[in-house]
Amino acid sequence: MKPRIFKLGLALPAMLLLTAALLTGCGDAMVFDPKGPIAAQQKDLIYISMLLCVVILVPVLALTAYIVVRYRDRKDSDAPYEPTWSHNTKLEIVWWAIPIIIIAILAVVTVRYTHALEPSKPIVSEKEELVIQVTSLDWKWLFQYPEQDIATVNYLYIPEDVPVRFELTSDAPMNSFWIPQLGGQIYTMSGMAMTLYLQADEPGVYYGSGANFSGEHFADMTFFATAVPQDEFDAWVEQVKSTSEPLTVEGYDELRQPGTSHVQQFAGIPEGLFYDIVTRYVVDGQNPHAGHGASAPEAEEASDSADAAEHGHDESHAAH
Is residue 261's pLDDT more than 80? Predict the structure, then answer.
């Protein structure tokens, strides 16, 4: 019995040491190395949640080891036999009150951060935001810069310390856009235009990917977001315009076909291409869903047309 008791006594320290060892490796995880204000707040939320979980986990593990050792069956035990015991008010208060308090704290913190980190909420900055229109394809990413009239495939260039307004949709199966060091993921869906604000606080090259299974080559849907000073970003825009061919409608139709792609760049984009993609699946005058405040003039026009048609139908129905 003694060797078994000795092993049980070592169980708790071993589990705690293993947990500590695993947590020390979190420093290499990208989500724990934020490079922007959104990712920094999300890291804080993760740490708070982890701390509250540890407050529960450590006592539970300690009590488990203690109960197993203290109340094991022994031949020489003189503990009273109480088969009808079923309630202890103090213990009931402890094991109900502590979880309720922790859950309440976690709920308050989560609600606060959820509102603060609403994806479509603009980032407060003195600098003008940059708009990038993102389209997930099979199996590649198309990034359009409507204000600069350029586009890239499978790589991003952004100015540091400038809010970036990502408008996102899909012309393929649903996917999820994610740059871990800048912020959390957001889904891209056909017929919808979502909005996500991110910002890079310092120059760097940040890994990005599709975080949703989308078929055979989903693992190839990766890209790098390069944050550079504003003057370098402006020089890059001019370089793209002077060394690349424009993206045509025919070129996009070819690009959207299933298959992987190497890095590409285009010196021009068809007018309204992003909104054509969003409204591609409009049927019978029904407007597409525009989510989280995405700006979509064509989508709004489609919505107005649909409302007008519905109003006319109602009047006609009333006349009959």
Answer: yes
The pLDDT, as a whole number, for residue 212 is: 87
Q: Which is more confident, 242 or 94? A: 242
Q: How far is CA 23 from the centre of its chain?
A: 22
Contact at 8 Å (CB) between 198 and 164? yes
Containing 223, the helix (H) or strand (E) segment is strand 222-228
On the CB side of 268, CA atoms within 13 Å amount to 7
Q: CA of 272: how far to CAs of 140, 153, 155, 170, 280, in Å?
A: 20, 18, 21, 15, 12
What percent of the chain is predicted at pLDDT more than 90?
A: 61
Query: 301 — alpha (psi -120 to 50), left (phi > 0) or beta?
Result: alpha
Look at residues 25, 15, 26 and name the one whose alpha carbon lies nearest to residue 49. Answer: 26
* Start-to-end C-alpha separation, the chain: 91
Residue 152: CB partners within 8 Å, gap ≥ 6?
A: 142, 143, 145, 240, 263, 264, 265, 266
**pLDDT at site 16:** 55
> Domain spans of the chain?
2-73+87-116, 130-310
130-310: what CATH class? mainly beta
Which tokens go with 24?
């020390």
pLDDT tens for each residue of 163-217: 999 999 999 999 999 999 999 999 999 999 999 999 999 999 999 999 888 888 8
Q: Provide DSSP, 244-302.
A: -PPPPHHHHHHHTSSS----EEES---TTHHHHHHGGG--TTPPPEE-TT---HHHHHH
Q: Which phi and psi angles does 270 have, rounded to 5°?
A: -60, 140
**Residue in 223, 235, 181 with CA at minimum distance from that of residue 203:** 181
